[in-house]
Amino acid sequence: MYPHERSLVKKYAKDPFVIIGVNSDKKARLKTAMKKNGITWRSFWDGGNTRGPIARKWGVSGWPTIYVLDAKGVIRYKSVRGKSMDKAIETLLAEMKEKKADKEEEKKAPKKKAKF
Amino acid sequence: MIRIIAFSFILLCPMTALAQDPAQDPVKETATQKLATLNKEFSDANRKYREGLAKIKDRNERYAFMRKMNPSNQFAAKFLTLAEENPKDPAAFKALLTVLRSRSYVAMQKALSLLGTHHAGSKDVKQAFWSASRVNGAADFFRKVIKENKAPETVGAATYMLASSLARSRKKEELAEAEALFKTVNEKYADVTFGRGKLGAQANNALFKLIKLKIGSVAPDIEGEDVDGVKFKLSDYRGKVVVLDFWGDW
User: Fold this and answer.
1) How far is residue B67's CA from residue B63's CA, in Å, rounded to a whole number?
2) Number of domains in chain B
3) A65-69 and A75-78 as β-strands: parallel, antiparallel, unpaired?
4) ipTM of the prediction greater than 0.95, yes or no
5) Residues of chain A contacting B225 with CB distance shorter than 8 Å
6) Are residues B111 and B58 both part of a single domain?
7) Closest C-alpha among B155, B113, B152 to residue B132
């Protein structure tokens, strides 16, 4: 998992993209794990065990459990791994770019009209 | 006095039956007797298997031994045959439970189908629920129990199990049915104790997951602290694509 996630952070360093963790380890172990594995992304610390309040509320019963959210916070993918996770991220980033382009075009459109 | 004699006669009957050598009279051997014999063979085989396994230190050799020598598959077939001979017998019910707890997938499916056909109304059928949920066709089995069983706790548990198995689907109509069934559990069977606690609480958790955590819903916000004790929220990251990863270092 760690190498794949590190590669995602690197690959999308310039994009509006983050990994947010919810971690179920003891605090000391989490700190060591972050240092040892080059984990730069932030995690909610969920009380030091797998029955923490966040995991319980989200009904998590297997680790890792993955959700992919779009820029509006909408859940768009669940339990994607490896290549399908990359594809999910690509799709959502592309969606954002498209929307941004649409908005810019809307802004430009009236100006063009004014010229003619 | 007569009553005592009659009573001891009833008590002694099965004992004398057990004392007979089954090999002498195979026709009269009941399903219960066959089951007792098979149970003994199975536990002997399991003991030998564990003893054998304990002697092997090398990891790969252990795996090879486990694959080859685990008696579970072989015995699943035997228990299934026993049940198929007399599917309605209470002994068959117990044999089928054993099959369901094996790892032989084909036998498990057949066992579940027999359980559904002959024991859906049984008062003990609940014992099969957790193992049943691992098998394809579990939904049909739970539907039969709901239809045929008279005990409200059993029907409630079956409704919850059916909903749980539908909730794992990717099809919209099955997810919608799961939602409706969890609501039924909440309305009618909330106080039934099953598995980890009351069905009402479990159905509520499941509904939260099904409604708030479904694809297309805005993720419920998370407020918490990072490893350094700094407070933050999931919604702080609106405007970005977020991979939310429940993880542990193991």
Assistant:
1) 6
2) 2
3) antiparallel
4) no
5) 44-45
6) yes
7) B113
Task: Kindly report the nearest CA distance between residue A110 and chain B, in angstroms.
Answer: 27
Using CB atoms, which residue from B232, B234, B247 is nearest to A64? B247
Question: Containing domain of residue B157, as a range?
Answer: 151-219
Which position has the token pair 């199990």? B161
Q: Which residues of chain B make contact with A37, given a CB cutoff of 8 A? A: 249
Query: Smallest Cα–Cα separation from B243: which of A68, A39, A116, A75?
Result: A68
The structural domains of chain A, ordered by start, are: 2-115 (3.40.30.10)
* pTM of the predicted structure, to 2 decimals: 0.71
Give the separation between CA B80 and CA B42, rounded to whole angstroms: 13
- Are residue B156 and residue B103 in the same domain, yes or no? no
Q: How many angstroms separate the CA of residue B155 from the nearest CA in chain A?
A: 24
Record: contact A27-B220, CB cut-off 8 A: no
DSSP symbol at A66: E
Q: How far is Cα B78 from Cα B90, in angstroms, rounded to an integer?
A: 17
**Band (A109; pLDDT cuts 50, 70, 90):** low
Q: Which residue of A has its CA nearest to B239?
A: A71
| B215 Cβ contact partners less than 8 Å away, ≥ 6 residues apart | A75, A76, A77, A78
CA B46, B50, B54 angle in degrees (round to 5)? 170
Q: Which of B237, B246, B249 sits opposite A65 (nearest CB)?
A: B246
Q: Which of A41-45, A103-107, A112-116, B100-104 has the lowest mean pLDDT?
A: A112-116
